Amino acid sequence: MYLLWLRVAAILYAAASVAVFPAVLYSLSRWRKICVHLGGLALFFHFVSVVEMLVQAHRWMPVGVREIESLLGLAVAGLFFLVWWIYDAISLGIFALPVTFFLVLVPALGPDRYTFPSEGVRVSWLVAHIAALLISYVALAFSMLASVLYLIQEQRIKSKLKPGQDSWWAPFEWLPPLDTLERIAHATLEFGFPCMTVGLVIGSVLAQETPLGASYFLDPKIIAAFISWVVYVLLLLVRRSAGLRGRRAAYLSGAVFLVMIAVWAANLFSHVHRYGAQ
Amino acid sequence: MTLALIGVNYKTAPIELRERIAISREELPETTRALAAVPGVSECMIVSTCNRVELLAAVDSPEVDLTGFLHRYFGLDPALLAPHIYEQHDQDAVRHLFRVAASLDSMVVGEPQILGQVKEAFAVARASGTVAGQLEHLLQSAFAAAKKVRSETEIGANSVSIASVAVDLARKIFGSLQGRTVFLVGAGKMSELAARHLVQQGAGAILVSNRTQARAQRMADEFRGRVIPFEQLHQAASEADIVISSTGAPHPIFRPEDGQAFLHRRRNRPMFFIDIAVPRDVDPAMGKLEGIFVYDIDDLQHVAAAHMAERSREAGDAEALIAAEVERFQQRQRTVNVAPAIVALQRQAEEIRQAELRRVQSRLGALSAEQTAAVDALTRGLVNKFLHPPMQALKQAAREGDSERMEVLCDAWSVPVGAEREAEPPAAGSGWTGGETEKAEGAEVSESSVESSR
């Protein structure tokens, strides 16, 4: 049954992804309502699907690539709606809703064929480790997106664009105010940090319990994860102490995001931390 | 019944004349009642703004002297007012009212205040008991048309004054202006106007600095702000999110190095410089600094002019919308005006049916209740089916304003063409078709009764 709910959610996400464009680009309030309602319904069905999927499998953790993708999609959609609710910034939906749709599309096609076979990872703390890290990744992605949009909006205002004038910046009329983008970038960054810390701490404790013990931490994937955490701390400190914003903040967020992608990709190469690893 | 509209506006009369007949909010109810007391006026209202004074009335005939009321009430020489006054009737008056409400007749086309002012004038007239069905119907249609213009065109989408363009830009940078600090450097009229706009949008603390301390103090008092001595200008500027500069200094007073110092002290929080001084107070190079936005008077004027041109383009679409709405209103009025003829036709047919039933009753003998009901339903059905084509033809002719065809149809069925309402004041329905109406008995009908007769 969870697949049915996930497919319903995927269709609703697709519809919301279509509706968000006229809502944002042409400031059409009717489309905005349609988009929010469709997206809200999609989030609800998505949540139901994820819970049912985990309950049916008699475990409270996602243990396959598709399950993880679905959970990541849920985190993206959830954070988008949180940002929309707090900052009234539906514009980010132009990115968040299609991304969520594509994240949900593959899991909605069918159940996972490959899962973690290891019994060792099937402890309930693992779900907290995965969820916390996924949320931190999504928060960082939102922060970077908001920083990039900040740069575009800044250049747009500085270009002194007149209505009807042909310019690179003309299509970005819909962007939220600079201050809103800055607050979103900062708030999502601060929100993601405790999630990443909690995720890494839980992961470390779980790793200690495995037969590999302390040698688990010599794996490149694990080392990269800790490096990304250190870079994250640096980014937060620099932003806080120097009031960093604009171009430099966007570059720094981009750097942290790249490290994060590398850490994610390291799952494919890690000997101890990957799907299908014993 | 005729609709009459007379008035003067910014296009026809100079301010010296308009201010002599301007009616304050307090005087409006009394003046409206005085107008209603003019013989021949059955309903009326007055729109009085800084740009126009217009009297709108439903009158018994076009000869009712509304201009005379203006002369008498305001004690004006008729020769003084005559060249500036305009007078419109029926369809022209409807079109004028729709255009006014939609802000197509405003000095700044698309400005939103006029609709509120017309609504307020209508509310005053309603409270004074000088409007009933006819003006009620007309004004509701005018409000609907104005709303349609605003929602279906971009006529009011962008700001066209320099001050409001500056506010829009500030919003693009800061989002909400709630609690933002505004620094007025130089106490000129333009900066005062811009500051007023910003304060209306929620801007918080106001700082004022001027070479003449007394002038700075006067403006600071007005905005409940704080005076900054001109020598401490650069120290205080970093406190401000928005700086409006309009001094008469011959050289820039804000340079890039100042901007860098401001950003350092503000920990890179953005600043918006609105430079309305000529020669400029802010070195344009400062706009290159990350986090500092500089707009001079030319930049603001260019944006305002582009918005104005956009409005002019939208005004074309809005005019077409208004023309369609006026036509729709007229059509509704014409359809409603045919209602008495339709009611008369139905009544006539019903009388014939009843008479025929009475005539054959003796031949039918005693009928059971079911049989009586069946005969009744049969005859009623026949009559309704028979009446359907002429009723449709009448309504079609009314919609098209084809009075000749209406007369032919009514003659053929021996019913009067139209009727005036018996009850006073008139209810929504009778209107200004430009055509003549005849009195018909029992013509207390409304648009809904026309619908139900279909």
Could you list some keywords that capture this structure?
heterodimer, A: 278 residues, mainly alpha, 8 helices, 0% strand, B: 454 residues, alpha/beta, Beta Polymerase, domain 2, 3 domains, elongated, disordered C terminus
How would you portray this structure in words?
The complex is a heterodimer of chains A (278) and B (454). Chain A has helices at 2-25, 29-56, 65-87, 93-109, 125-158, 178-209, 220-242, 247-265. Chain A has 2 domains: 1-115; 116-278, no CATH class. The radius of gyration of chain A is 20 Å and the shape is flat. Chain A is built from 8 helices and no strands. The mean pLDDT of chain A is 80. Chain A is mostly helical and 278 residues long. Chain B has a 6-stranded parallel beta sheet. A 4-stranded antiparallel beta sheet of chain B has the order 2-3-1-4, with helices on both faces. Chain B is built from 17 helices and 10 strands. The longest helix of chain B has 41 residues, at 297-337. Chain B is of the alpha/beta class. The radius of gyration of chain B is 32 Å and the shape is elongated. The A-B interface holds A 153-154, 157-158, 160, 162-165, 176-180, 242-247 and B 158, 169, 171-176, 266-270, 287, 290-291, 293, 295, 299, 302-303, 306-307, 309-310.
